Amino acid sequence: MLYVVIGVFVIPVILQVLYLLVTLNQWSFFPLILGLIFQGKRLYGTWRPLIENFVIALAGGFFVFIISHKGINNIGEKIYLITYAFLLCFILAFLAKFKKSRELIIPKLTEGITLLYSIAIIYWLVDFSKDYVYAKIVYVFFFIVFCISVFSIINAFTKIPLSKTNRFLLSLWSSIAMIVFALDYIIRVFKNGEISNAVSFQQEVYLFFQYFLLGVSAIYIAQNISMIFGFLPDKNEKSYRNSRRIKVLKKDHVERYSEEQVSVWYSLFCVVFSTSLFWMNYKCQFMNRQSIIWIVFVSFPILIHFYEYVKNYKGLNSK
């Protein structure tokens, strides 16, 4: 009954938002939705929490449209705000749901995933430093990133036991790296502008793909914000180190990191696949660094799942 009542009020809002977006050619919203659905389904495993977040975020975007400042006279600019507001509301809804159902939302990490993140952040820093080659702070960051990345690479290629401390450090590093990638990508995409402003079909396709990956990255940033910013001290806590909240968060980091060690061949394939794409893009500049990084993040797991599927299929047929 509750869902019926909510539906009576929410569905008209959703239809009104979609009508405004289509009427004013604000097409970037739709690939953003597809990206959220793609990654959200992989993360949640079920449709219900994803739909709930979607409805909350869409209603929040429409609310921002209604209360937007009177100084914004252009209706197109107000509609464009919906994209920003929707993304923010979706992240907030995700974080709220995270507190209620941690097991549902926290996916497993592996040595292979951390290895992929480490290679990607080295490429990101090398490409980023091209414009700041004389800045000493860049070299400091590069040294820190390199040391942590070497630690994750050693874990991926050796049989060093994945102790609780190692799993916590690798999980924490994975979250930090993912936040850097996601924030950098979000800033880049919104600088590109609206799909309807593209001057060619090729640019429309490019921007469509950019906003699709933005939806994917929004899921990642929501997940990892919850895993990082939870460590910030609370002024109401008497003892930070002995806080139950901190203990639970550390436990989440440890438990989300798989104790199963990946094979050397898996790690080697990860290195060859990612470094090849990053090197080619660095030399030829096919696209910006943000796009190639997210293409690797999205495509690599798909390739691995496809390989496992073919391997299992052949195994069943051989029996």
TrEMBL record:
Keywords in alphabetical order: Membrane, Transmembrane, Transmembrane helix
Keyword Transmembrane: yes
Signal peptide limits: none
Segments crossing the lipid bilayer: 6-38, 50-67, 79-96, 108-126, 132-156, 168-187, 207-232, 262-280, 292-310
Domain of life: Bacteria
Protein's recorded name: Uncharacterized protein
